[in-house]
Amino acid sequence: TKGNGSFANSKSGNTTFTPTSDATIKANFDKQQDPCDPSNTYNIKVTEQCNDAGCSMDNGINNVLSGGPWWNSNPSLSRDGTGTFTGGTEWTLHLFNPGGGTLNGKETYIKKLTVNGQSKNPITYSTVVCSDQNVVIEYGVRAQTAKQNVDIQYYVDNVHVDTKSTTVIQGQTFQYTAESDYKGGQFKRYVVEIANKQTGSGTNTSISVSNVTSSVLIKLYYEKTAMCKVTMQSATGGSTTPAGGTTQTVECGKAMSIKATPSSGYKFSKWSIKNGTGKFGDTTSASTNFYPSSDTTIAPSFAKQESCKVSGTVEEYMRAAGQGQISASLKSDTRHSKAITVTIKTEGGQTFTVTIPANNTTTQSYANSLRGAEDPITSVTAKDSSGLTCTTNITIKNPQNLKH
User: HSE-up of 242 (CA within 13 Å, CB side)?
Assistant: First the structure.
């Protein structure tokens, strides 16, 4: 626009400029037309042909061979198979029954589908209209192929509930996928019968029968899932999960989680079946599984837990330089049904035990020598023979010159 110079190619967007003086240059852009712009319109025409010997066409579009293939489109065309659409319109041609019907004892079928001379899938053709479309559907006629009947029978809990029928071209392989669930039943197995004889069976839902030359009967067997009702009975001394007095419906034979929680002063004893049948994972575990095999009532058992309390005195004496002695005077405050073991520990790691016999409230005396004189008592604990921790009211006495 100013000055002098030359372009290597003034019509190329990617070029070089050689100036011969100071110069100002400018790029020019032309608006490019979008073929899919809705302001444009395009024509679609569908033509039907049938050139095979013995083929006859009815007049009009989409009205070809009785019982044979047919089609429709979305958006639809006029009765003569033409339509005009704006750019960018999505247009779909659906072709039905491509395998065809019959005509004078022969089969009719879709032989070929072309769009602007290019072959397309003869089932569904879909496009975005950005140009004229010339669609040709070519039908064919061929000798009728022998077919065999296939009946598919459904059984639920060994009761025949349904039958579906179809055909297969003779000599070909018939394939069928059984539903995994049918009328409340779960698929279990299939049986194939040809000429009243079993020729195959299996448990896979994918079924294949090769080289079919006779009628085929396929029997599909389903079983309804057995369900069991489990009632949890309440029990004195604790609670349960599920809650006592409630009923759960579960699959028979499958694990049902149960839990018993004892109240204060009680302990869990065991699980039991009150009526019905089933089994526990562990009858003596408060948290376990139950496997019902019928409608069942189950219950936990809780036992009252004894209190356990020990009182008395544990004392350490200085006997001589470098020597010490420990003595204890202990008793159970109540007649406890199990023996109680009192454990005395010192700072230096020495351990002494005192046993209070079962059902005994007599004070038990104990004495023993210490290794060293400065090893103060640090703890005194008590447990019965079942592992129950007892409460203690025990006074610990250490000499004044020891650390404690």
Answer: 16
pLDDT of residue 318: 72
Query: What pLDDT, on a 0 to 100 scale, did the predictor assign at position 387?
Result: 86
Task: Give 141's strand partners.
Answer: 108
Q: Specify the residue for token string 């489109």.
A: 73
91 pLDDT more than 50:
yes
- Rounded Cα–Cα distance for residues 81 and 375 (Å): 110
pTM comes to: 0.41
Question: Residue 403: which pLDDT band, with cuts at 50, 70 and 90?
Answer: very low
| Cα separation, 88 vs 391, whole angstroms | 87
Mean pLDDT, to the nearest integer, of 291-318? 91
The answer to whether residue 105 scores a pLDDT higher than 80 is: no
